[in-house]
């Protein structure tokens, strides 16, 4: 029977394919004593053989679909499976303790993990702890007769189903086969949703129960336009949604015609529509969608995609590649924003009660200055290759901003003294994503060249509603007058002090938000590359004279977010704008 689940539309498009459950099975076991230890050792050996065969298959498929580098991790796992020090220790444990293989595996794996994690002066060996964990999980699954999901080995079209997807899970999805994803939890501005948009994978998040409502292989529709997930659809539904997907694809073709057009309003006012990127790989989307700048390069993905902190040289290469590729158009690169929902496996930071309110972004950079300085040097060197903006994330106080700027100035001086070329077209800016900074926008504006409003965080901090928690998504209100007043105050503070103001939060690419922002006079709109042409098309239809009053009405007359949504919808209807 067909069942429709309501979630949050996280990435546009429609996917129709069998479900692939990316859900870890329950691997709990009971410790039992065994009398026939030889039989237990033989059972263990057989399972090691099965696990090896399975891993070899996974590795080969991963090599084909994701590339040799991504597949390397499986070689590391295979090494453990063939290492007599590891498997032999488990066999000895079975024999000596007369326990079942599950208990012997668990006991031995824990010992290995503790030893590896203790090697604090050897990052390479520390990383091996993760390999032991993964390999042990696989052996345990085989011992218990359960199946582990292997996303890297997907070789047919699927809609991935998961409780949640971390940004690194999302990075591993192979677009060729993963046609969409549906999750139990998450929000529209969680980083996995943002990545889905840049990968153009339709996504529905926050359905609460998809992992329970769908079985592996069940037919599943992910409607990323309206936020519906349909399990076991009827033939009529498959036809309906296939048509809906085709209509959306046709609309996208129409928008594509605007690729090389400037971003102008109906009354010929020019603005910048820029792209947000995570890695140099996203440049394809930047080009295909005619971005006029890069308004946000989230550098943390460079850190997340490497096995250890990326060196100054590796960072320099990545930044230079993007700056050169932009061919004279501005690139704004944000310093590392780790923390919140973005973690590094190799950076063992203390657990926090509230990671989004903890040591995140610039706060982390200030605690680990060496890492910050390495990045600043790479950025300064890359600035010689084109117009660059360096932007600091999560600034809350003037003291933080001044300290970051001071370190940047010192590093610039040092490089110049070393005879290294630094660009003269370098701007220094900050994100406005902490309400405290928005309130003091006039003061901050005197110290930077530009602002970029990070609404993804500004909304969550203003409304005290976690951006990734679907249970409070009703409070995560971009159109709330309180949020809009902070945005307007920021733009006014920037303009009164002679600097430009952009927005790189997802709200910049939102159809309802856009006319309000235009009415506020926002200068630059930076968004997932896939939203650019939709917004350019909308911009072309709006005459700024017609929406002059919109900002004030939205900030000071409306009392609720819903009223603002209606206000924009009615204004657009009156103006005959139907994008
Ligand atoms: C934001 O907060 O709006 C933003 C662009 O930064 P991020 O989404 O990476 O937190
Ligand atoms: Mg942010």
Explained architecture:
This protein has 579 residues and is of the alpha/beta class. It has 3 domains: 3-23 and 150-254, Glucose Oxidase, domain 1 (3-Layer(bba) Sandwich), CATH 3.50.30; 37-144, PtsI, HPr-binding domain (Enzyme I, Chain A, domain 2); 263-574, Phosphoenolpyruvate-binding domains (TIM Barrel, Alpha-Beta Barrel). The protein is 48% helix and 14% strand. It has helices spanning 37-66, 68-81, 84-97, 101-117, 123-143, 167-172, 191-199, 210-213, 235-256, 283-288, 300-304, 312-325, 362-367, 369-382, 398-417, 435-439, 441-445, 455-463, 481-496, 513-520, 532-541, 550-557, 561-574, and strands at 3-6, 8-11, 14-21, 158-162, 178-183, 203-205, 219-223, 228-231, 272-277, 294-298, 331-334, 388-392, 426-432, 450-453, 500-503, 524-528. Strands 1-8-7-3-4-5-6-2 form an 8-stranded mixed β-sheet. Strands 9-10-11-12-13-14-15-16 form an 8-stranded parallel beta barrel, surrounded by 6 helices. Strand 12 (388-392), helix 15 and strand 13 (426-432) form a beta-alpha-beta unit. The protein is globular. 47% of the residues are buried. The mean pLDDT is 93. Phosphoenolpyruvate binds next to strand 10 and helix 18. The active site is at residues 191, 504. It is an enzyme of class 2 (transferase). Its EC number is 2.7.3.9.
């Amino acid at each position: 029977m067909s069942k429709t689940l309501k979630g949050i539309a996280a990435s546009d498009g429609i996917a129709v394919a069998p479900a692939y459950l990316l859900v870890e099975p329950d691997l709990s076991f009971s410790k039992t004593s065994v009398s026939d230890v030889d039989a237990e050792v033989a059972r263990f050996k057989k399972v090691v053989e099965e696990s090896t065969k399975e891993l070899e298959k996974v590795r080969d498929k991963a090599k084909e679909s994701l590339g040799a580098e991504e597949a390397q991790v499986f070689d590391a796992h295979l090494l453990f499976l063939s290492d007599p020090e590891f498997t032999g220790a488990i066999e000895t444990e079975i024999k000596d303790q007369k326990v079942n293989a599950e208990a012997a595996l668990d006991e031995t794996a824990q010992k290995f993990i503790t030893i590896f994690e203790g090697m604090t002066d050897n990052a390479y060996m520390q990383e091996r702890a993760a390999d032991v964990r993964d390999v042990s999980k696989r052996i345990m699954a085989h011992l218990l007769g359960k199946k582990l999901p292997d996303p890297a080995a997907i070789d047919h079209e699927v809609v991935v189903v998961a409780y949640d997807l971390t940004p690194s899970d999302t990075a591993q999805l192979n677009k060729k086969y993963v046609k969409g994803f549906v999750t139990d939890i998450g929000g529209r501005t969680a980083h996995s949703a943002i990545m889905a948009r840049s990968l153009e994978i339709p996504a529905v998040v926050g359905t609460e129960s998809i992992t329970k409502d769908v079985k592996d292989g069940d037919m599943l529709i992910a409607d990323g336009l309206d936020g519906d997930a349909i399990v076991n659809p009827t033939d009529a539904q498959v036809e309906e949604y296939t048509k809906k997907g085709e209509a959306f694809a046709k609309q996208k073709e129409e928008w594509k015609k605007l690729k090389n057009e400037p971003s102008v309003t109906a009354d010929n006012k020019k603005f910048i529509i820029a792209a947000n990127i995570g890695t140099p790989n996203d440049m394809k989307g930047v080009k295909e969608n005619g971005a006029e700048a890069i308004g946000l390069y989230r550098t943390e993905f460079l850190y997340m995609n490497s096995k250890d902190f990326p060196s100054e040289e590796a960072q320099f290469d990545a930044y230079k590649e993007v700056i050169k590729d932009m061919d004279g158009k501005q690139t704004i690169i944000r310093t590392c924003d780790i923390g919140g929902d973005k973690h590094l496996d190799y950076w063992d930071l203390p657990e926090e009660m509230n990671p989004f309110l903890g040591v995140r972004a610039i706060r982390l950079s200030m605690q680990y200055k060496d890492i910050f300085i390495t990045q600043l040097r790479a950025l300064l060197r890359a600035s010689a290759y084109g117009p660059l903006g360096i932007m600091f994330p999560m600034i809350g106080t003037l003291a933080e901003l001044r300290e970051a700027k001071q370190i940047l100035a010192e590093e610039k001086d040092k490089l110049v003294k070393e005879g290294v070329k630094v660009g003269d077209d370098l701007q220094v800016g900050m994100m406005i994503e902490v309400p405290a900074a928005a309130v003091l926008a006039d003061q901050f504006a005197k110290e930077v060249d530009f602002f970029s409003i990070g609404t993804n965080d500004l909304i969550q901090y203003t409304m005290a509603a976690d951006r990734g928690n679907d249970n409070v998504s009703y409070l995560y209100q971009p159109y709330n007058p309180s949020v809009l007043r902070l945005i307007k105050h920021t733009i006014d503070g920037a303009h009164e002090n002679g600097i430009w103001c952009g927005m790189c939060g997802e709200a910049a690419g939102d159809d309802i938000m856009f006319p309000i922002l235009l009415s506020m006079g926002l200068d630059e709109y930076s968004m997932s590359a896939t939203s650019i042409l939709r917004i350019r098309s909308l911009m072309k239809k709006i005459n700024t004279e017609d929406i002059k009053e919109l900002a004030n009405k939205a900030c000071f007359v409306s009392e609720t977010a819903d009223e603002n949504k209606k206000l924009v919808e009615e204004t657009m209807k009156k103006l005959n704008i139907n994008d």
